[in-house]
Structure of Acyl-CoA dehydrogenase:
Amino acid sequence: MSGIGPERTAALAAKVEAFVRDTVIPYERDPRRDHHGAPTEELVEELKEHARAADVLTPHILPDGSHLTQRETAVVLTASGLSPLGPLACNTAAPDEGNMYLLGKVGSPDIQARFLKPLVEGRARSAFFMTEPDGGAGSDPSMMQTHCHQDGNHWVINGRKTFITGAQGAKVGIIMAKSDDGACMFLTDLPHPAIRIDRVPNTIDNSMPGGHATITIDNLRVPADQMLGNSGEGFQYAQVRLSPARLSHCMRWRGACIRAHEIATDYANRRMAFGKTLIDHEGVGFMLAENMIDLKQSELMIDWCAGVLDGGSLGTAESSMAKVAVSEALMRVADRCVQVMGGMGVTADTIVEQVFREIRAFRIYDGPTEVHKWSLAKKIKRDWKAAQAGSGVA
């Protein structure tokens, strides 16, 4: 990736940050929310129109269709994340950002024209159908139970999916299913009569339009040319998407925690207790100091992993390390912000309590901390065995 260079990246990030602070943040009190507390489609479309007018819609994808480097993307997505509404307004939110990256990398020209173009233009939302209920694929994708078989020039898909972010209201679906050859990945238009939303549960987070739905797929027929690649290559393409997508989560939520830290810092410098401002009490001041440390360490971890991905590696181990380190560090930051603000920190009067909830969910989404640690431990064992074999040690 060649990117646009540090100066243009800084200017673009500053433009995105100014838009989020000046235009998006005032919308945080907008009452247009669904019964799960997520912003309505009407609100999201209005924000996108503002972003389009400000020339900050989908800023991580250049007019020629190429992407910023991962390091450049980190700066821009962090700026968009300063408000929970920022990624929705700027079209940098999950799952769309990860889906755009995947289709831009491996989609055929026809797939890109039909499915990718409306996503990049902010005219459609998408959903990624991978996780399953009832003993199916989750942290272990090899357990996939949704199956597919070829019927003439179509593939027929049956199964159930769960925690499918944004499925309600999405126009583009990417579905993973298992054939006799292995995992496959398909594109389909949404809504579709063969794809039924069974329920959308209330969850601890509510920043994503459409929530996290449970889905039944009943004899969905997909034209063969809407398969990504070939039968059995689905896991390969999933890794193309998941490694940078994990890192993008880290970028956006770091932006949210920077904002929460700003709010907590302002509160601690204004609130008086026992004859002095809160920040002058070591118990409070030290928490804010620890926030600075965790935010900086998160920035460095993101930059390191982004460099690996920019170097051409899938970076599976690196993205696992970044996901664990950053999500755990940001959870500490969000928790301290609530604690510093006391009663005010648990109210909806600021975004601090929402950031806390969203980061708590982030520790699970895209692989829980424990699964990533387990994966890294397996790598440590493999590397040790390889080193032993190479040294001739029995």
User: Anything to note?
Assistant: The chain has eleven helices and nine strands. The mean pLDDT is 96. The CA atoms of residues 154 and 223 lie 4 Å apart. The first strand starts at residue 126 and ends at 129.
